[in-house]
């Protein structure tokens, strides 16, 4: 029973990591670089949601504003920086993304101050389902995350633009000669990645506190989940986030709380030793 | 991109100006004493850092207004630690190597001070800090005796926690500690003092920073049915832990250090959650003349009463004490100044409360600077022993019920 409870505790944390990893992996799959500004885009989403929530008192409005705001921010970053650097080495793009992350973080620090802020959501007692204590707020957040994930996967797998995105991710040159306009695909991808970040950031903000560094601090587990899931695999990113979150919590009776983070990296190592391409990744030939 | 001749000339001129600039700075800097203010402007120490930095500057201004120390003006070079050891080390390197500061003042969290002190030791300059980690008192960290602590050690905090626990009649305490030198120092200091009183600690958990949830940690602690949980924590993790604890509905009391249980925590969680929490902090030397002077400076700089920030009173004392030692040494030569630090804080000396007063009294003989943060009296380890206040959070207000002396 205690393990089931620990697993439930881990799921919520896993969802936040999974959403971040999904955004990271989308960018990696299509724009082909690790976007280190992912965490800070999450923070931006959290602050947007917080501001709107304070003004309107509605979390729904807050989340809509956060998704919109972060999507626009991601698109602006693409148009202003990443687009101009397209075709440069991965390192230039990575460094540029670190720089954008810095700018977002510093901007938020100036605008909102460095003191922590919180979402004023009413605190509630957990409900008991089959002996498991589940917090109603966690349940709501999980539903929000599930809806967001369903929407992203519907776009990816059920719409023409999603098909084009997957085609570009598969083979950029082939997609191009087939008449797919990379510009449209990129725009759609950055909007989606920004929106996904916003949901993850908002969840993190509601669960914990909002401060300019919260997203940046999440970057390590997000990268771990992306690699574990197989770089470029959206399903893998989400599953890996959940696996890492649950593995961390369930391990605590054995390794204690201090080493649970290290344990998630042991899981990562073990999986990569057995399956170097990650859980859902595919082997890519070098062209 | 093509570069025109005009652009090229422009950039050459700009480059020349850049190269020339440090020379101008050097020329100005010949007769000032440079002191580094390395405070936590951002990060977990953010609520205190700005005030701490402003009080170093304000104390330096007071020194300069009184004609400077040993005839030289003090110039403050400020940097931000971000409450992060890596960032702090970079900033300290810059202060030491580029600005050539004679001392670094105002580091706050123990992790930061432990990271910075090897650099100040190598440079042979003092580090005055507000950190609690016991390791900062002794070698290797304080091998050269250049580390000076203006805050109580975490061990002393732990002892104060144990005193309060006894006074409040708790029987089954459990501990939760943030995994760093300060957090663990608090709870281990508590456990040691508590066991010395014949008590038993029913459960203890050390947790990692930056987690989205601490529910599993709480589950383990609450399973032992404690009547009070003693923490060594910071504000962000305390916010999350208390919120999740409240949601479990299991009644328990909390004893939390003052840097985590502060008005911001009340604002974040609401009055109902924090009701009855005991916040323990070292108390400033509130009755002293020095505190009045500091309070005035703090109000002017921050628009808040000086009691809001015990650390700012400490940094005020750091700058004032250092300037008095420079004045007493008659030189900014660091070994001579360090040798004088305890002399201007000497038990037999004439009591003084400001730099100007001390400068005057030094002409006649020994002085004893009575600080704004505590009476100071640096011991052989460079530590001070302030008193502690037990603040009960009631209806969102911090009511100091009693003072604990250890």
Automatic annotation (TrEMBL), chain A:
<dbReference type="GO" id="GO:1903806">
    <property type="term" value="P:L-isoleucine import across plasma membrane"/>
</dbReference>
<feature type="transmembrane region" description="Helical">
    <location>
        <begin position="93"/>
        <end position="113"/>
    </location>
</feature>
<dbReference type="GO" id="GO:0015192">
    <property type="term" value="F:L-phenylalanine transmembrane transporter activity"/>
</dbReference>
<keyword id="KW-0997">Cell inner membrane</keyword>
<feature type="transmembrane region" description="Helical">
    <location>
        <begin position="59"/>
        <end position="81"/>
    </location>
</feature>
<dbReference type="InterPro" id="IPR001851">
    <property type="entry name" value="ABC_transp_permease"/>
</dbReference>
<keyword id="KW-0813">Transport</keyword>
<keyword id="KW-1003">Cell membrane</keyword>
<keyword id="KW-0029">Amino-acid transport</keyword>
<keyword id="KW-0472">Membrane</keyword>
<dbReference type="InterPro" id="IPR052157">
    <property type="entry name" value="BCAA_transport_permease"/>
</dbReference>
<dbReference type="GO" id="GO:0005886">
    <property type="term" value="C:plasma membrane"/>
</dbReference>
<feature type="transmembrane region" description="Helical">
    <location>
        <begin position="254"/>
        <end position="274"/>
    </location>
</feature>
<keyword id="KW-1133">Transmembrane helix</keyword>
<dbReference type="GO" id="GO:0005304">
    <property type="term" value="F:L-valine transmembrane transporter activity"/>
</dbReference>
<keyword id="KW-0812">Transmembrane</keyword>
<dbReference type="GO" id="GO:0015188">
    <property type="term" value="F:L-isoleucine transmembrane transporter activity"/>
</dbReference>
<dbReference type="Pfam" id="PF02653">
    <property type="entry name" value="BPD_transp_2"/>
</dbReference>
<feature type="transmembrane region" description="Helical">
    <location>
        <begin position="185"/>
        <end position="206"/>
    </location>
</feature>
<feature type="transmembrane region" description="Helical">
    <location>
        <begin position="218"/>
        <end position="247"/>
    </location>
</feature>
<feature type="transmembrane region" description="Helical">
    <location>
        <begin position="12"/>
        <end position="33"/>
    </location>
</feature>
<dbReference type="GO" id="GO:0015190">
    <property type="term" value="F:L-leucine transmembrane transporter activity"/>
</dbReference>
From TrEMBL, chain B:
<comment type="similarity">
    <text>Belongs to the leucine-binding protein family.</text>
</comment>
<keyword id="KW-0813">Transport</keyword>
<dbReference type="Pfam" id="PF13458">
    <property type="entry name" value="Peripla_BP_6"/>
</dbReference>
<dbReference type="InterPro" id="IPR028081">
    <property type="entry name" value="Leu-bd"/>
</dbReference>
<dbReference type="InterPro" id="IPR051010">
    <property type="entry name" value="BCAA_transport"/>
</dbReference>
<protein>
    <submittedName>
        <fullName>Branched-chain amino acid transport system substrate-binding protein</fullName>
    </submittedName>
</protein>
<dbReference type="InterPro" id="IPR028082">
    <property type="entry name" value="Peripla_BP_I"/>
</dbReference>
<feature type="domain" description="Leucine-binding protein">
    <location>
        <begin position="33"/>
        <end position="348"/>
    </location>
</feature>
<dbReference type="GO" id="GO:0006865">
    <property type="term" value="P:amino acid transport"/>
</dbReference>
<keyword id="KW-0732">Signal</keyword>
<keyword id="KW-0029">Amino-acid transport</keyword>
<dbReference type="InterPro" id="IPR006311">
    <property type="entry name" value="TAT_signal"/>
</dbReference>
């Amino acid at each position: 029973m205690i393990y089931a409870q620990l697993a439930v505790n881990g799921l919520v944390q896993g969802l936040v990591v999974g959403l971040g990893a999904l955004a990271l992996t989308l960018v990696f799959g299509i724009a082909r670089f690790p976007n280190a500004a992912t965490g800070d885009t999450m923070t931006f989403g959290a602050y947007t949601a917080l501001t709107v929530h304070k003004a309107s008192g509605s979390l729904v409005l807050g989340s809509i504003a956060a998704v919109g705001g972060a999507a626009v921010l991601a698109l602006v970053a693409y148009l202003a920086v990443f687009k101009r650097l397209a075709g440069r080495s991965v390192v230039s793009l990575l460094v540029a993304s670190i720089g954008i992350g810095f700018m977002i973080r510093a901007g938020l620090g100036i605008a909102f101050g460095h003191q922590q802020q919180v979402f004023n959501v009413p605190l509630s007692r957990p409900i008991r389902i089959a002996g498991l204590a589940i917090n109603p707020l966690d349940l709501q957040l999980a539903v929000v995350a599930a809806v967001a994930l369903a929407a992203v996967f519907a776009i990816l797998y059920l719409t023409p633009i999603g098909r084009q995105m997957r085609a570009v991710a598969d083979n950029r040159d082939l997609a191009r000669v087939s008449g797919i306009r990379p510009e449209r695909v990129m725009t759609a991808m950055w909007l989606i990645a920004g929106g996904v970040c916003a949901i993850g950031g908002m969840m993190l903000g509601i669960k914990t506190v909002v401060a300019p560094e919260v997203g940046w601090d999440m970057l390590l587990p997000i990268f771990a989940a992306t690699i574990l899931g197989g770089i470029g695999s959206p399903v893998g990113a989400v599953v890996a986030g959940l696996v890492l979150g649950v593995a961390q919590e369930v391990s605590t009776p054995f390794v204690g709380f201090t080493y649970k983070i290290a344990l998630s990296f042991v899981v990562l190592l073990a999986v990569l030793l057995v399956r170097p391409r990650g859980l859902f990744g595919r082997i890519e030939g070098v062209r | 991109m093509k570069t025109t001749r005009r652009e090229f000339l422009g950039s050459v001129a700009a480059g020349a100006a850049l190269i020339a600039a440090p020379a101008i700075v050097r020329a100005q800097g010949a007769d000032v004493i440079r002191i580094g203010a390395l405070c936590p402007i951002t990060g977990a120490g953010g609520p205190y850092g700005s005030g701490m930095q402003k009080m170093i500057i304000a104390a330096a201004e007071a020194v300069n207004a009184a004609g400077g120390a040993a005839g030289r003006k003090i110039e403050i070079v400020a940097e931000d630690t971000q409450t992060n050891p890596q960032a702090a080390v970079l900033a300290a390197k810059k202060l030491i190597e580029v600005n050539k500061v004679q001392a670094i003042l105002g580091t706050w969290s123990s992790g930061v001070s432990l990271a910075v002190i090897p650099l100040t030791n190598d440079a042979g300059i003092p580090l005055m800090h507000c950190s609690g980690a016991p390791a900062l008192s002794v070698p290797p960290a304080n091998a050269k005796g250049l580390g000076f602590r203006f805050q109580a050690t975490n061990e002393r905090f732990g002892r104060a926690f144990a005193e309060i626990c006894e006074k409040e009649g708790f029987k089954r305490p459990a501990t939760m500690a943030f995994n760093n030198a300060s957090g663990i120092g608090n709870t281990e200091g508590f456990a040691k003092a508590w066991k010395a009183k014949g008590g038993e600690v029913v459960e203890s958990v050390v947790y990692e920073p930056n987690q989205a949830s601490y529910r599993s940690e709480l589950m383990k602690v609450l399973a032992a049915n404690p009547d009070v949980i003693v923490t060594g924590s910071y504000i962000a993790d305390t916010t999350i832990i208390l919120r999740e604890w409240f949601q479990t509905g299991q009644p328990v009391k909390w004893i939390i250090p003052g840097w985590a249980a502060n008005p911001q925590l009340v604002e974040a969680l609401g009055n109902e959650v924090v009701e009855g929490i005991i916040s323990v902090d070292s108390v400033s030397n509130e009755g002293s003349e020095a505190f009045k002077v500091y309070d005035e400076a703090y109000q002017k700089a921050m628009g808040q009463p000086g009691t809001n920030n015990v650390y700012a009173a400490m940094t005020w004392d750091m700058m004032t004490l250092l300037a008095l030692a420079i004045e007493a040494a008659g030189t900014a030569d660091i070994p001579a100044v360090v040798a004088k630090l305890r002399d201007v804080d000497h038990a037999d000396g004439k009591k003084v409360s400001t730099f100007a007063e001390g400068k005057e009294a030094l002409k006649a003989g020994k002085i004893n600077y009575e600080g704004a943060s505590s009476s100071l009296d640096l011991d052989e380890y460079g530590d001070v022993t302030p008193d502690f206040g037990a603040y009960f959070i009631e209806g969102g207000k911090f009511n100091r019920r009693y003072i604990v002396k250890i």
